[in-house]
Design brief:
By secondary structure, the protein is α/β, with parallel strands linked by helices. The chain is built from 7 helices and 7 strands, in the order ααβββββαβαβααα.
């Protein structure tokens, strides 16, 4: 549809640095994409003007976009940063937003992290966080799926052509946690884990 093409074209402009306020537009465009994937309650925490146009990114004490579903939540975090800056700016805040919402809502809560290019250092961080329980978050782990923007667009193209059931979304998130536990016990690397969960997302039906 025209909306799908417009979302994809906006992502192209963002990666080409052809858009002003790129971080804000990245949040807004991803919110648009997620609202087309399923029928959860999708909340963009960026601020808008009276006409619904985005004017400021989400505050630092909350996730960029929150998906509220019947039995779980997903925190969607997006960034335009890369390299070591991405790790410094995004790693701990992403897992904190997931953990705190999980504790507050008393519902399973997962994360999806999207960046034009994933820093190699952030993948091991999310690998460990999917296994390590935190007393700060009520003894829960924080499962986050890291995706490059190209991979998210591929997922979006496939998922937006149908109504994706909530249970299918939750299954993707649970798979990433289960594989982290399994791979950690078997001495597999973060890259092994990332490759497996990435393929699972890209082949989701």
């Amino acid at each position: 549809t025209a909306d799908i093409e417009d979302i994809i074209n906006t992502y192209t402009l963002l990666t080409q640095r052809g858009v002003q306020d790129a971080p804000l537009r990245m949040e807004w465009n991803t919110w648009r994409a997620i609202t087309m994937i399923d029928h959860g309650k999708i909340i963009g925490n960026f601020t808008t003007d009276d006409e619904g146009n985005p004017i400021h990114t989400a505050g630092g004490n909350q996730g960029d976009i929150i998906g509220k579903y019947n039995k779980f939540n997903i925190v969607y975090e997006v960034t335009m940063s890369s390299g070591s800056t991405q790790y410094k700016m995004e790693s701990e805040p992403v897992t904190r937003h997931v953990g705190m919402l999980q504790k507050e809502s008393n519902l399973p809560t997962y994360g999806v992290f999207i960046a034009p290019k994933l820093s190699p250092t952030i993948i091991p961080y999310f690998y460990v966080s999917a296994v390590a329980k935190s007393t700060e978050f009520g003894g829960k782990t924080t499962g986050v799926i890291p995706l490059s923007l190209d991979d998210f667009i591929s997922f979006f193209k496939a998922a937006s052509t149908k109504e994706m059931a909530e249970k299918e979304l939750q299954k993707l998130c649970e798979y990433s946690i289960q594989k982290a536990r399994e791979y950690m016990m078997n001495g597999k690397t973060a890259e092994d884990w990332y490759t497996t969960i990435r393929n699972n997302v890209l082949t989701a039906k």
